[in-house]
Amino acid sequence: MLAQRMSLLSGSGTAAAREAAKDAASAGRQVIDLAAGEVIIEPPSSVREGAIAAINAGTNRYTDSVGLPPLRKAVAEKLCAETGIGWSSDDIVITAGAKQGLLDAALALFNPGDEVIIIRPCWPTFHSQVLLAGAAPVFVDARPPTYIPDIGTIRAAVTPRTKAIIINSPNNPTGAVYDRTTLQAIGDLAINYQLWIVSDECYSSLIFTGSRHESIVMAHPGVRSRTILVNAFSKELAITGWRLGYFAAPPEIVSAAKKLQSHTTSNANVIAQHAILHHLHTGDGRFERVMYQRLFDARHTCLRILAGLQDVPPPGAEGTFFFYLDLSRLISSLPPGSAVRTSDDVARLLLEESGVGSVPGSVFGDVNGLRFSFGAPPELLEPALKKIVHTLNSLNTRQAAF
Ligand code: PLP
Protein backbone atom coordinates (compact mmCIF):
# COMPACT_ATOMS: atom_id res chain seq x y z
CA MET A 1 0.00 0.00 0.00
CA LEU A 2 1.55 3.27 -1.07
CA ALA A 3 1.61 6.41 1.03
CA GLN A 4 -1.41 8.67 0.66
CA ARG A 5 0.69 11.43 -0.83
CA MET A 6 1.16 9.36 -3.96
CA SER A 7 -2.52 9.72 -4.73
CA LEU A 8 -1.97 13.49 -4.91
CA LEU A 9 0.37 13.17 -7.85
CA SER A 10 -0.48 12.51 -11.45
CA GLY A 11 2.29 11.60 -13.88
CA SER A 12 3.94 14.41 -15.78
CA GLY A 13 1.66 15.43 -18.66
CA THR A 14 4.55 16.87 -20.62
CA ALA A 15 6.44 13.57 -20.29
CA ALA A 16 3.30 11.71 -21.42
CA ALA A 17 3.08 13.92 -24.53
CA ARG A 18 6.75 13.22 -25.29
CA GLU A 19 6.18 9.50 -24.79
CA ALA A 20 3.20 9.52 -27.16
CA ALA A 21 5.45 11.11 -29.81
CA LYS A 22 8.21 8.54 -29.12
CA ASP A 23 5.75 5.62 -29.26
CA ALA A 24 4.44 6.81 -32.61
CA ALA A 25 8.02 7.09 -33.89
CA SER A 26 8.93 3.60 -32.67
CA ALA A 27 5.84 2.26 -34.39
CA GLY A 28 7.47 3.41 -37.63
CA ARG A 29 5.64 6.75 -38.04
CA GLN A 30 7.51 9.84 -39.23
CA VAL A 31 7.21 12.09 -36.19
CA ILE A 32 8.45 15.61 -35.56
CA ASP A 33 8.45 16.04 -31.81
CA LEU A 34 7.58 19.59 -30.79
CA ALA A 35 6.41 18.45 -27.36
CA ALA A 36 9.80 18.51 -25.68
CA GLY A 37 10.73 21.33 -23.31
CA GLU A 38 14.29 21.60 -24.51
CA VAL A 39 16.31 23.13 -27.32
CA ILE A 40 17.91 20.54 -29.57
CA ILE A 41 21.39 22.01 -30.00
CA GLU A 42 24.92 20.94 -29.08
CA PRO A 43 25.73 22.47 -25.66
CA PRO A 44 28.74 24.78 -25.26
CA SER A 45 32.14 23.11 -25.60
CA SER A 46 33.24 24.83 -22.37
CA VAL A 47 30.68 22.75 -20.43
CA ARG A 48 31.93 19.49 -21.96
CA GLU A 49 35.56 20.46 -21.43
CA GLY A 50 34.89 21.37 -17.81
CA ALA A 51 33.24 18.02 -17.21
CA ILE A 52 36.00 16.03 -18.88
CA ALA A 53 38.70 17.92 -17.01
CA ALA A 54 36.92 17.26 -13.71
CA ILE A 55 36.63 13.54 -14.47
CA ASN A 56 40.28 13.33 -15.52
CA ALA A 57 41.35 15.19 -12.40
CA GLY A 58 39.72 12.44 -10.30
CA THR A 59 36.85 14.57 -9.02
CA ASN A 60 34.59 12.07 -7.33
CA ARG A 61 33.61 13.22 -3.87
CA TYR A 62 30.66 14.87 -2.20
CA THR A 63 30.54 18.65 -2.26
CA ASP A 64 28.92 21.00 0.26
CA SER A 65 25.22 20.22 0.13
CA VAL A 66 24.49 23.70 -1.24
CA GLY A 67 27.24 23.48 -3.85
CA LEU A 68 30.94 24.14 -4.46
CA PRO A 69 31.89 27.50 -2.89
CA PRO A 70 33.52 28.81 -6.10
CA LEU A 71 30.41 27.89 -8.07
CA ARG A 72 28.15 29.66 -5.58
CA LYS A 73 30.42 32.69 -5.94
CA ALA A 74 30.39 32.54 -9.75
CA VAL A 75 26.57 32.24 -9.77
CA ALA A 76 26.28 35.18 -7.36
CA GLU A 77 28.46 37.25 -9.73
CA LYS A 78 26.35 36.19 -12.73
CA LEU A 79 23.20 37.20 -10.88
CA CYS A 80 24.74 40.57 -9.89
CA ALA A 81 25.56 41.24 -13.54
CA GLU A 82 22.09 40.23 -14.70
CA THR A 83 20.01 41.98 -12.06
CA GLY A 84 22.19 44.92 -11.06
CA ILE A 85 21.59 43.86 -7.45
CA GLY A 86 24.29 42.72 -5.03
CA TRP A 87 24.35 38.98 -4.26
CA SER A 88 27.01 36.99 -2.41
CA SER A 89 27.81 33.27 -2.28
CA ASP A 90 25.86 33.01 0.97
CA ASP A 91 22.64 33.91 -0.88
CA ILE A 92 23.05 31.08 -3.41
CA VAL A 93 22.12 27.39 -3.30
CA ILE A 94 23.21 25.07 -6.10
CA THR A 95 20.51 22.52 -6.92
CA ALA A 96 19.87 19.51 -9.13
CA GLY A 97 17.99 21.63 -11.66
CA ALA A 98 15.35 24.25 -11.00
CA LYS A 99 13.01 21.46 -9.94
CA GLN A 100 15.00 20.79 -6.81
CA GLY A 101 15.15 24.48 -5.97
CA LEU A 102 11.37 24.70 -6.26
CA LEU A 103 10.93 21.60 -4.11
CA ASP A 104 13.33 23.00 -1.50
CA ALA A 105 11.21 26.15 -1.39
CA ALA A 106 7.96 24.19 -1.07
CA LEU A 107 9.28 21.92 1.69
CA ALA A 108 10.93 24.76 3.54
CA LEU A 109 7.87 27.03 3.51
CA PHE A 110 4.55 25.23 3.24
CA ASN A 111 2.57 23.64 6.05
CA PRO A 112 -0.55 21.50 5.73
CA GLY A 113 -3.46 23.94 5.50
CA ASP A 114 -1.44 26.65 3.76
CA GLU A 115 -2.67 27.92 0.43
CA VAL A 116 -0.34 28.77 -2.41
CA ILE A 117 -1.45 30.89 -5.37
CA ILE A 118 -0.40 29.59 -8.76
CA ILE A 119 -1.07 31.42 -12.03
CA ARG A 120 -2.71 29.13 -14.58
CA PRO A 121 -1.95 27.92 -17.32
CA CYS A 122 1.02 26.61 -15.38
CA TRP A 123 3.84 24.14 -15.50
CA PRO A 124 2.34 21.18 -13.60
CA THR A 125 5.24 20.59 -11.23
CA PHE A 126 4.33 23.76 -9.31
CA HIS A 127 1.08 22.39 -7.93
CA SER A 128 2.40 18.83 -7.58
CA GLN A 129 5.14 20.10 -5.27
CA VAL A 130 2.72 22.26 -3.30
CA LEU A 131 0.57 19.16 -2.77
CA LEU A 132 3.62 17.09 -1.79
CA ALA A 133 4.36 19.66 0.90
CA GLY A 134 0.81 19.15 2.21
CA ALA A 135 -0.45 22.58 1.16
CA ALA A 136 -3.27 23.50 -1.23
CA PRO A 137 -2.76 25.09 -4.64
CA VAL A 138 -5.17 27.95 -5.41
CA PHE A 139 -5.29 28.67 -9.12
CA VAL A 140 -5.72 32.10 -10.66
CA ASP A 141 -6.41 32.06 -14.38
CA ALA A 142 -4.38 34.30 -16.67
CA ARG A 143 -6.41 34.84 -19.81
CA PRO A 144 -5.53 35.09 -23.47
CA PRO A 145 -4.37 36.90 -25.47
CA THR A 146 -1.69 38.21 -23.06
CA TYR A 147 -1.82 35.55 -20.32
CA ILE A 148 -0.71 38.26 -17.89
CA PRO A 149 -2.57 37.72 -14.60
CA ASP A 150 -5.00 40.35 -13.39
CA ILE A 151 -3.94 41.74 -10.02
CA GLY A 152 -7.53 42.13 -8.80
CA THR A 153 -8.13 38.43 -9.49
CA ILE A 154 -4.98 37.47 -7.61
CA ARG A 155 -5.99 39.69 -4.68
CA ALA A 156 -9.42 38.07 -4.60
CA ALA A 157 -7.74 34.66 -4.24
CA VAL A 158 -5.79 35.69 -1.11
CA THR A 159 -7.16 34.33 2.18
CA PRO A 160 -5.76 34.29 5.71
CA ARG A 161 -4.27 30.90 4.81
CA THR A 162 -2.32 32.14 1.79
CA LYS A 163 1.39 31.60 2.35
CA ALA A 164 2.93 32.28 -1.05
CA ILE A 165 2.51 33.02 -4.71
CA ILE A 166 4.43 31.18 -7.41
CA ILE A 167 5.17 33.17 -10.55
CA ASN A 168 6.97 32.16 -13.72
CA SER A 169 8.09 34.78 -16.22
CA PRO A 170 8.99 34.19 -19.02
CA ASN A 171 6.18 31.69 -18.75
CA ASN A 172 5.95 28.04 -19.63
CA PRO A 173 3.61 27.28 -21.39
CA THR A 174 2.24 30.65 -22.55
CA GLY A 175 5.46 32.47 -23.47
CA ALA A 176 4.14 35.54 -21.60
CA VAL A 177 6.67 37.96 -20.14
CA TYR A 178 5.30 39.87 -17.16
CA ASP A 179 5.60 43.64 -17.45
CA ARG A 180 7.12 45.79 -14.72
CA THR A 181 3.73 47.11 -13.54
CA THR A 182 2.43 43.58 -13.02
CA LEU A 183 5.58 42.53 -11.17
CA GLN A 184 5.40 45.61 -8.96
CA ALA A 185 1.74 44.98 -8.19
CA ILE A 186 2.48 41.35 -7.28
CA GLY A 187 5.31 42.62 -5.08
CA ASP A 188 3.02 45.12 -3.34
CA LEU A 189 0.45 42.40 -2.78
CA ALA A 190 3.07 40.07 -1.30
CA ILE A 191 4.17 42.79 1.11
CA ASN A 192 0.62 43.79 2.06
CA TYR A 193 -0.46 40.22 2.76
CA GLN A 194 2.91 38.97 4.05
CA LEU A 195 3.33 36.40 1.31
CA TRP A 196 6.41 34.62 0.08
CA ILE A 197 7.15 34.83 -3.63
CA VAL A 198 8.63 31.88 -5.49
CA SER A 199 9.81 33.31 -8.80
CA ASP A 200 10.78 30.73 -11.42
CA GLU A 201 12.97 32.54 -13.93
CA CYS A 202 14.30 29.51 -15.82
CA TYR A 203 13.70 31.09 -19.22
CA SER A 204 15.18 34.48 -18.30
CA SER A 205 17.71 34.41 -21.16
CA LEU A 206 15.02 33.78 -23.78
CA ILE A 207 13.00 36.94 -24.44
CA PHE A 208 12.43 37.91 -28.07
CA THR A 209 10.68 41.25 -27.88
CA GLY A 210 13.74 43.44 -27.52
CA SER A 211 13.41 43.90 -23.77
CA ARG A 212 15.68 42.34 -21.17
CA HIS A 213 14.46 40.01 -18.47
CA GLU A 214 13.26 41.78 -15.37
CA SER A 215 13.24 39.73 -12.20
CA ILE A 216 10.62 40.60 -9.61
CA VAL A 217 13.43 41.63 -7.27
CA MET A 218 14.52 44.21 -9.86
CA ALA A 219 10.99 45.53 -10.44
CA HIS A 220 10.31 45.66 -6.70
CA PRO A 221 13.51 45.56 -4.60
CA GLY A 222 11.38 45.61 -1.44
CA VAL A 223 10.41 41.94 -1.94
CA ARG A 224 13.90 40.53 -1.84
CA SER A 225 13.58 39.34 1.78
CA ARG A 226 10.49 37.32 0.86
CA THR A 227 11.53 35.99 -2.55
CA ILE A 228 13.11 32.74 -3.70
CA LEU A 229 14.50 33.44 -7.14
CA VAL A 230 14.84 30.09 -8.91
CA ASN A 231 16.84 29.58 -12.08
CA ALA A 232 18.84 26.88 -13.87
CA PHE A 233 21.34 26.21 -16.62
CA SER A 234 19.04 23.58 -18.14
CA LYS A 235 17.39 25.80 -20.74
CA GLU A 236 20.02 28.55 -20.98
CA LEU A 237 22.78 26.12 -21.96
CA ALA A 238 20.62 23.34 -23.44
CA ILE A 239 21.78 20.86 -20.81
CA THR A 240 18.47 19.69 -19.36
CA GLY A 241 19.88 16.27 -18.49
CA TRP A 242 22.89 17.59 -16.57
CA ARG A 243 20.66 18.71 -13.71
CA LEU A 244 22.21 21.94 -12.59
CA GLY A 245 20.23 24.84 -11.21
CA TYR A 246 20.35 27.37 -8.42
CA PHE A 247 18.31 29.73 -6.34
CA ALA A 248 18.95 32.97 -4.52
CA ALA A 249 17.08 33.46 -1.26
CA PRO A 250 17.14 34.96 2.22
CA PRO A 251 19.36 33.25 4.84
CA GLU A 252 16.61 31.18 6.50
CA ILE A 253 15.72 29.54 3.17
CA VAL A 254 19.39 28.90 2.36
CA SER A 255 19.83 27.19 5.77
CA ALA A 256 16.68 25.14 5.25
CA ALA A 257 17.89 24.03 1.81
CA LYS A 258 21.24 23.06 3.31
CA LYS A 259 19.44 20.64 5.62
CA LEU A 260 16.99 19.43 2.99
CA GLN A 261 19.63 18.74 0.37
CA SER A 262 21.91 17.04 2.90
CA HIS A 263 19.13 14.51 3.49
CA THR A 264 17.93 14.15 -0.09
CA THR A 265 20.48 14.46 -2.90
CA SER A 266 23.52 15.39 -0.72
CA ASN A 267 24.62 17.72 -3.50
CA ALA A 268 24.08 18.42 -7.18
CA ASN A 269 26.28 16.19 -9.35
CA VAL A 270 29.89 17.22 -8.78
CA ILE A 271 30.95 16.84 -12.42
CA ALA A 272 28.09 19.03 -13.58
CA GLN A 273 29.04 21.61 -10.96
CA HIS A 274 32.64 21.70 -12.23
CA ALA A 275 31.45 21.82 -15.84
CA ILE A 276 29.29 24.89 -15.20
CA LEU A 277 32.00 26.51 -13.12
CA HIS A 278 34.41 26.08 -16.04
CA HIS A 279 31.80 27.53 -18.39
CA LEU A 280 31.17 30.54 -16.15
CA HIS A 281 34.92 31.20 -15.91
CA THR A 282 35.86 30.65 -19.55
CA GLY A 283 32.70 30.92 -21.69
CA ASP A 284 32.82 33.88 -24.08
CA GLY A 285 29.05 34.11 -24.57
CA ARG A 286 29.26 32.77 -28.14
CA PHE A 287 27.08 29.73 -27.49
CA GLU A 288 24.40 31.85 -25.82
CA ARG A 289 24.39 34.26 -28.77
CA VAL A 290 24.20 31.46 -31.34
CA MET A 291 21.36 29.70 -29.56
CA TYR A 292 19.48 32.93 -29.05
CA GLN A 293 19.81 33.88 -32.72
CA ARG A 294 18.70 30.44 -33.82
CA LEU A 295 15.58 30.66 -31.67
CA PHE A 296 14.97 34.26 -32.73
CA ASP A 297 15.05 33.27 -36.42
CA ALA A 298 12.97 30.14 -35.83
CA ARG A 299 10.33 32.13 -33.97
CA HIS A 300 10.18 34.67 -36.79
CA THR A 301 9.81 32.01 -39.50
CA CYS A 302 7.22 30.07 -37.51
CA LEU A 303 5.14 33.15 -36.69
CA ARG A 304 4.95 33.89 -40.42
CA ILE A 305 3.56 30.40 -41.01
CA LEU A 306 1.20 30.60 -38.03
CA ALA A 307 -0.25 33.82 -39.46
CA GLY A 308 -2.04 31.48 -41.86
CA LEU A 309 -4.20 30.07 -39.05
CA GLN A 310 -7.86 30.88 -39.63
CA ASP A 311 -9.69 30.56 -36.32
CA VAL A 312 -6.73 30.77 -33.99
CA PRO A 313 -5.10 34.08 -32.98
CA PRO A 314 -1.32 34.23 -33.48
CA PRO A 315 0.60 33.40 -30.30
CA GLY A 316 2.56 36.09 -28.43
CA ALA A 317 5.63 33.91 -27.78
CA GLU A 318 7.42 36.83 -26.14
CA GLY A 319 9.73 34.54 -24.21
CA THR A 320 10.72 30.86 -23.76
CA PHE A 321 10.79 28.69 -26.88
CA PHE A 322 7.12 27.78 -26.88
CA PHE A 323 4.17 28.75 -29.00
CA TYR A 324 0.93 28.55 -27.09
CA LEU A 325 -2.23 28.62 -29.15
CA ASP A 326 -5.63 29.57 -27.81
CA LEU A 327 -7.97 27.13 -29.56
CA SER A 328 -11.19 28.29 -27.87
CA ARG A 329 -12.64 30.02 -30.94
CA LEU A 330 -11.69 27.16 -33.25
CA ILE A 331 -13.13 24.47 -30.97
CA SER A 332 -16.36 26.33 -30.33
CA SER A 333 -16.84 26.87 -34.06
CA LEU A 334 -16.68 23.15 -34.87
CA PRO A 335 -19.90 21.42 -35.92
CA PRO A 336 -21.73 19.56 -33.13
CA GLY A 337 -20.84 16.12 -34.55
CA SER A 338 -17.11 16.87 -34.70
CA ALA A 339 -14.81 14.30 -33.15
CA VAL A 340 -12.64 17.17 -31.96
CA ARG A 341 -13.98 18.70 -28.75
CA THR A 342 -10.90 19.52 -26.72
CA SER A 343 -7.26 20.45 -27.15
CA ASP A 344 -6.41 16.85 -26.17
CA ASP A 345 -8.29 15.76 -29.29
CA VAL A 346 -6.36 18.30 -31.35
CA ALA A 347 -3.00 17.11 -29.99
CA ARG A 348 -3.94 13.50 -30.71
CA LEU A 349 -5.08 14.38 -34.21
CA LEU A 350 -1.88 16.30 -34.91
CA LEU A 351 0.20 13.31 -33.86
CA GLU A 352 -1.88 10.67 -35.60
CA GLU A 353 -2.57 12.48 -38.87
CA SER A 354 0.29 14.91 -39.24
CA GLY A 355 3.02 13.23 -37.21
CA VAL A 356 3.62 16.34 -35.07
CA GLY A 357 4.01 15.99 -31.30
CA SER A 358 2.56 18.82 -29.16
CA VAL A 359 1.29 19.22 -25.60
CA PRO A 360 -2.41 19.85 -24.96
CA GLY A 361 -3.32 22.70 -22.64
CA SER A 362 -5.05 20.32 -20.23
CA VAL A 363 -1.56 19.45 -18.98
CA PHE A 364 -1.27 23.08 -17.88
CA GLY A 365 -4.79 23.34 -16.50
CA ASP A 366 -6.27 24.97 -19.61
CA VAL A 367 -8.57 22.96 -21.88
CA ASN A 368 -8.21 25.46 -24.71
CA GLY A 369 -4.46 25.64 -25.13
CA LEU A 370 -1.92 23.85 -27.28
CA ARG A 371 1.83 24.14 -26.77
CA PHE A 372 4.60 23.33 -29.15
CA SER A 373 8.29 24.12 -29.10
CA PHE A 374 10.42 26.01 -31.58
CA GLY A 375 13.55 24.53 -30.00
CA ALA A 376 13.40 21.61 -32.46
CA PRO A 377 16.04 21.46 -35.24
CA PRO A 378 15.30 24.37 -37.63
CA GLU A 379 14.99 22.16 -40.74
CA LEU A 380 12.09 20.30 -39.08
CA LEU A 381 10.19 23.36 -37.93
CA GLU A 382 8.93 24.70 -41.22
CA PRO A 383 7.33 21.40 -42.40
CA ALA A 384 5.92 20.78 -38.91
CA LEU A 385 4.37 24.24 -38.65
CA LYS A 386 2.85 23.96 -42.11
CA LYS A 387 1.26 20.66 -41.08
CA ILE A 388 -0.11 22.23 -37.91
CA VAL A 389 -1.65 25.11 -39.84
CA HIS A 390 -3.07 22.75 -42.47
CA THR A 391 -4.58 20.40 -39.86
CA LEU A 392 -6.10 23.15 -37.72
CA ASN A 393 -7.51 24.99 -40.74
CA SER A 394 -9.05 21.78 -42.06
CA LEU A 395 -10.94 21.01 -38.83
CA ASN A 396 -13.93 23.06 -39.80
CA THR A 397 -14.43 21.38 -43.13
CA ARG A 398 -14.26 17.80 -41.98
CA GLN A 399 -17.03 15.86 -40.33
CA ALA A 400 -15.60 12.40 -39.98
CA ALA A 401 -14.27 11.12 -36.70
CA PHE A 402 -10.57 10.36 -36.71
N1 PLP B 1 10.49 25.55 -14.28
C1 PLP B 1 9.84 25.61 -15.45
C2 PLP B 1 8.86 26.72 -15.67
C3 PLP B 1 10.07 24.67 -16.46
O1 PLP B 1 9.42 24.76 -17.61
C4 PLP B 1 10.99 23.62 -16.22
C5 PLP B 1 11.23 22.57 -17.19
O2 PLP B 1 10.55 22.42 -18.17
C6 PLP B 1 11.64 23.60 -14.99
C7 PLP B 1 11.38 24.57 -14.05
C8 PLP B 1 12.61 22.51 -14.65
O3 PLP B 1 13.90 22.93 -14.86
P1 PLP B 1 15.10 21.94 -14.55
O4 PLP B 1 15.20 21.00 -15.69
O5 PLP B 1 16.27 22.84 -14.42
O6 PLP B 1 14.78 21.23 -13.28
TrEMBL record:
TM ranges: none
Catalytic activity as recorded in UniProt: L-aspartate + 2-oxoglutarate = oxaloacetate + L-glutamate
Cofactors named for this entry: pyridoxal 5'-phosphate
Source taxonomy: Bacteria, Pseudomonadati, Pseudomonadota, Alphaproteobacteria, Hyphomicrobiales
Protein name in UniProt: aspartate transaminase
Keyword field: Aminotransferase, Pyridoxal phosphate, Transferase
One Pfam family recorded for the sequence: Aminotran_1_2
Enzyme kind, highest EC tier: transferase
Gene Ontology terms, MF aspect: transaminase activity
Aminotransferase class I/classII large domain mapped to chain residues: 30-388
Family indicated by similarity: Belongs to the class-I pyridoxal-phosphate-dependent aminotransferase family.
InterPro entries hit by this protein: Aminotransferase_I/II_large, AspAT/PAT-like, PyrdxlP-dep_Trfase, PyrdxlP-dep_Trfase_major, PyrdxlP-dep_Trfase_small
EC number: 2.6.1.1
Domain of life (superkingdom): Bacteria
